[in-house]
Each structure stands twice: as C-alpha cells, then as structure tokens.
C-alpha cells in the first residue's frame, strides 16, 4: 500500500499521515523514550502519545511495543522507521528550497566533535554541494566540546554538533537540541577478551588510547579510576577515531568511544565492546546554536538532518 504525506490530516482517510506524527515517531526512536522525545519537540507527553497513536492508526498496526522499557520497535515499526527517516530528511530539504531565505549565501561555519567529524564532515560537504552548490559553503572545524560551545557563544560558529558526556549541561544562553543519547563503550582487541564482563581494575593495567587532555570522556574515565585508587596509564593521546581504534586493534591499549564510532569503524570486526560492571558512561549529541533565529536557519536544520541520517546508516561491510 502506498502512503501519501500531507500536512493536514483527514481522519476519514486512514492512508494520510501528518508530518508532525512522523517527526514524533522518529524522535522517539532517536531519543529512546516518549518523555525525552516530547521534551525535544517541546510538547507534552500526552500530545506525543496522541501523535504516535495517530501514526499507528494510519499504518494499521502498532509501531512501538509498550510492554518493554524503553519501548521497542515492533516488526512493522522496524520496516516503517527507515522510511520515516527518509521522509523527514526530504521534507527538510524541500523546505530549504522553498523557503524565502533560501537565497542566503556565503560560508556556514560548523563545529563538529572529532568522533562525529570522521563520518559527518564528508556527508555535510557532499549534501551541501548538491543542495546549494557554490551559493552556501560549509566551513567545518573540529575541537573538543567545551571549545566548540565557546565558539558558538562568541559567534565564531553558526552551529556546533557536539558529542559530550550524558550529564553535561549546555549553557542556558544557547539553544540546544539533543539528537541522540547513547552509551560510551570501552573497546579492546577482540582476541584479548572472552566476551565476559569485566571491571575497571582489570582494564587499568592495559593502558588507554584516548583523545588529548580536555576531552570530557577522558575526564570521566580518570575520575572513575581515581574513585577506586586505580592508576591511569595513557598509551596514545590523539584525535581521530580510526587512528585510536587502529591502535586498539594493534594491541596498544583500550579505547573509550561512542558506540556509533565502533559501528562505523573499518576495524570493528577486530574489536570488542567490553562490558564493565562498575563503569557505565553515557553520551549525548547536541546541536547547539545561539538563541536567535539565523538567516541560515533552514540550512542549519538541513545540516542537522544530514547528521541524524548518517547516524542511522550502517557502515559498509
């Protein structure tokens, strides 16, 4: 059955869907819960539930299994999720092309966290060239999260896509949208680990392959080690996820990376995510900009959509 998408909903025709219902569904998938998704979209949880139910009625089947915590996708939900992602991305692109201010030109200054930049920078450049050509050109810088946030506050960056510890707080004077919450994982060489759970004490002697000083993830690890009076031994300090994971695969030490970094790495088949029973770090990906609407807002919304879409794509085999 082919579905048609309209901004207005005719409840006499179940095959018509509202963009806001699709957006609600995709936001629940990305955030992991109805409550978090409602907060991201700035609506009540009751409104969020109604939008999900409306989409389920249009699809003729439940999309979320509410008996689990957090709610999981049903078999029908799995099939529809990828389509809904694409609908949102195409809708964002269409809005840019039709918006009155789509003629904005010049450079769009974007900051990316290093773990994000390795796959997102290419996608941003490619998509921007397809949409705007020479009219609007991304200028991308990578740095640690605190430096990127300062650059946004000072006006040096139009937009920052920042991966930071899950407990971190974005300054109130900036506008922030949480795009993803996930776990941060300790990674080791596959042949060195049996798949059983471990602990920080077992890991600390092997040493670590991490970002340079100033990284929030590194600080979080050091604090956890200090709580147990465990040593912190650094084997490699360098930006670059693939460099770090290549070094881990070569036996240099253990890494600490976002799960999506491992999933997209060309070294993923030689590595293992190590489950630690005494260390459970989390991360959040935020899109951050100044708390004022920019003339390039539609373009920035598309950039955010490009990164969201990239996070859901599987790495090539």
From TrEMBL:
Q: Its domain of life? A: Bacteria
Gene Ontology molecular functions: DNA-binding transcription factor activity; transcription cis-regulatory region binding
Kindly give the Pfam families that the UniProt entry links to this protein. HTH_1, LysR_substrate
State if Transcription is listed as a keyword. Answer: yes
SUPFAM superfamilies according to UniProt? Periplasmic binding protein-like II, Winged helix' DNA-binding domain
Keyword check for Transcription regulation, yes or no: yes
**Residue ranges of the HTH lysR-type domain?**
17-74
Entry-linked PROSITE patterns? HTH_LYSR
> What task does this protein carry out?
Transcriptional regulator of the ttuABCDE tartrate utilization operon.
Annotated family:
Belongs to the LysR transcriptional regulatory family.
Protein known as: HTH-type transcriptional regulator TtuA
What is the species listed in this Swiss-Prot or TrEMBL entry?
Answer: Agrobacterium tumefaciens str. Kerr 14
């Amino acid at each position: 059955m082919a579905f048609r998408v309209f901004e207005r909903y005719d409840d006499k025709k179940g095959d018509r869907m509202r963009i806001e219902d699709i957006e609600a569904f995709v936001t629940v998938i990305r955030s992991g819960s109805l409550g978090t998704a409602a907060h991201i979209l700035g609506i009540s949880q009751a409104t969020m539930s109604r939008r999900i139910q409306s989409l389920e009625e249009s699809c003729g089947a439940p999309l979320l299994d509410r008996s689990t915590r957090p709610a999981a996708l049903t078999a029908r939900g799995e099939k529809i999720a990828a389509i809904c992602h694409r609908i949102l991305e195409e809708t964002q692109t269409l809005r840019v092309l039709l918006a009155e201010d789509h003629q904005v030109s010049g450079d769009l200054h974007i900051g990316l966290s290093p773990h994000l930049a390795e796959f997102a920078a290419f996608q941003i450049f490619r998509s921007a060239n397809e949409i705007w050509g020479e009219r609007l050109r991304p200028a991308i810088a990578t740095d640690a999260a605190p430096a990127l946030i300062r650059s946004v506050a000072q006006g040096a960056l139009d937009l920052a896509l920042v991966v930071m510890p899950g407990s971190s707080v974005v300054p109130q004077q900036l506008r922030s949208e949480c795009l993803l919450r996930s776990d941060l994982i300790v990674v080791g060489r596959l042949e060195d680990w049996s798949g059983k759970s471990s602990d920080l004490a077992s890991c600390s002697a092997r040493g670590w392959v991490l970002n340079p000083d100033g990284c929030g993830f590194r600080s979080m690890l050091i604090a956890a080690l200090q709580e147990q009076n465990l040593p912190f031994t650094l084997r490699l300090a360098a930006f670059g996820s693939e460099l770090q994971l290549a070094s881990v695969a070569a036996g240099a030490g253990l890494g600490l990376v976002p799960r999506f970094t491992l999933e997209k790495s060309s070294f993923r088949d030689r590595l293992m995510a190590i489950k630690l029973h005494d260390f459970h770090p989390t991360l959040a990906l935020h899109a951050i900009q100044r708390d004022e609407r920019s003339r390039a807002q539609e373009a920035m919304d598309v950039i955010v959509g490009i990164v969201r879409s990239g996070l859901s794509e599987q790495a090539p085999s």
